[in-house]
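Many introductory courses stop at the sequence. We go one step further.
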Amino acid sequence: MAPRPIVDVNQQTVADMKAARSRTSISVQAVRNYLYGGQEMWDLHERLEKILVQEPLFDKQHRDFLGRTDQFVRAAAIINRLDELRRMHNWSEEEYNTASSLLSETTSTTLHDRAFQPIFVGQGSPALMDNYWDLVYEKGIQGCYLQTELGHGTNVARLETTSTYIPETQEFEINSPSLTSTKWWVGALGKSATHGAVQAKLILPDGKDMGPHLFFVQLRSLEDHKPLQGITVGDIGPKASGGMASQDQGFARFDHVRIPRTNMFSKFAEVTTEGSYIQPPHAKLSYGGMMYIRANMIPASGWTIAKAATVAIRYTTVRRQGELDARGLERQVLTYPSTYYRLLPILSRAFVFIELGRYTIKALTQMQQQLANRDTSLLPEMHALLCGLKVFVTTHGIADIETARRSMGGHGYSAFAGLGRLYIEYLPAATFEGDNFVLDGQVVRAATKLCKAVLSSTTDVSKLLPSSAYLRLLSTTSKAPPQVTASTWHNVQSVVLLLEWRAALMVKNFTQTPTSGDVDASVNQRLAKAVTEAFVAAQVGEMINNLANLPSEDAKVVGCLYRLYLLTCAESALVDLLSVGLIRHTGAGDPTQDLRLVVKALCIEVFPNAIGLTDAFGFSDWSLDSALGVFDGRVYEALWQRVQMEPMNKDEVTPAYAPYIRPMLQRGQAAAQEKMKLKSRL
């Protein structure tokens, strides 16, 4: 057996990273500009990051050593400094939001920017805007969004907090009638927010309950920050695994708190001075704040997954373990099929979700413009689409971050790897802004309603919106479902059509189930996933068609990545495809093997560009904050340097030694000596 070559592992990691980059065939700059929406947006990103990295306060390397209170105080200091920089550099709203996103810090202003402020814009009356908008925009007050209660969350219709109109004083009285009506889980409410948009049941003078509406309520004094009379407010305590430690999720109870009539968010629904109710054009208009948040969760999930993919792919590129390669070195971990099969589909989803987010926010903006003119035609379907996409991207995001972490082996569990924090901070996305399992039901209700209309020929299928276009396949003029062959998996439109047929047939079968018929317990989850994946597949097909704007090699590689997304999506749908008869077992071999071999071939085709594609995300080492995801590949040196920052290492002998460790050791040593004496006498 030939002797193994002697190598400097630290130099080898650098060489491996350089070699990986040298194999890249794409223009990293061109793909990066594609992801950011153009050179101008990347220039903005880069210019702002150069400002942020100069700030000692924004250094991320020591935050893992802080306790919860210190993390909260640090976050408050970051918010204050960011606001100072905003004024110093005269940043626009877009520049401020970009800088805030670049920081990747969980702060109390997140809900002000992403929920409270959009509610004002979308639902505030002219009078409310005149009185408060300048304070909201300039952050002269800090807002939060009080919807979830101790007893109810996703089921907004059953919230218990009341807002009763008092015509004699032209005021609303906000009240928490029970313990379970306590507002709960509200970001920034615990210690930071001065005002809130409170979701409460509107009660008219005659006692009639008009359901949940939004009200603008001051929570704390602008003089000394103490809670106002009648309001009990505080922090709900630490979250699971220490997640979101720097944000003050809070509770609030209202004891007959009076607010002016004009403090109702009444752009669409209103209560007159006499107490009469003016109906909104659509019952779900008050969900605008949630819809805005859900729409922004889509690109956010893409960039979050992108960070996980970048760290894991960089680390497994330079990490060598196990079998020997042709040079006698251990193989790079990424070269094992079990690793690249896990990580490259994650990379594909990051690209898809980033682009999908751009489409979704554009569609939401269009809907909001129509709402301003009281046109609610797009509202029901946009609500259902965002429910489905929220479930889809967050479910994948949580799984993908954890898959990326596990691909890194034992070192992935270190806080210095960066993915543990990323995972635990992203984990609540499955339950906030609507529990994923509950939202699935809303997707299915919308789908079955449209399906019945298509089957009864009461809907013109040519006018179906993109989110329900798959239902066109159920019209009487539609062709029969395609026959799946080995060539199907090599044609983008064939795969897209197959996923659309899967959704159409599943929804049709469910819709035609007799009312008295029994259905399985997971039907909502399977149907919602199929419906959402059909829409996303069609969008990915469009993404591939639009790649002509990229240089040919870049278009080829990114297109290959998008095809990988489509095929791994089809692979995860195999049970459904078989159950609705789109794939048939003829008895001659495995009918799914062709698909799996194409997935493998696509992974191998993408593999040489894996590092280049992650570089295109544009993450700096400062932004990633990962010892194992450093750009130059010096992962072991970076990990060693981070370990030296551990406060426990400042003491050669731990303070716990004298009072606790030494007495135990001494007792054990004495007991062992006694046993040895007894043995010597025998």
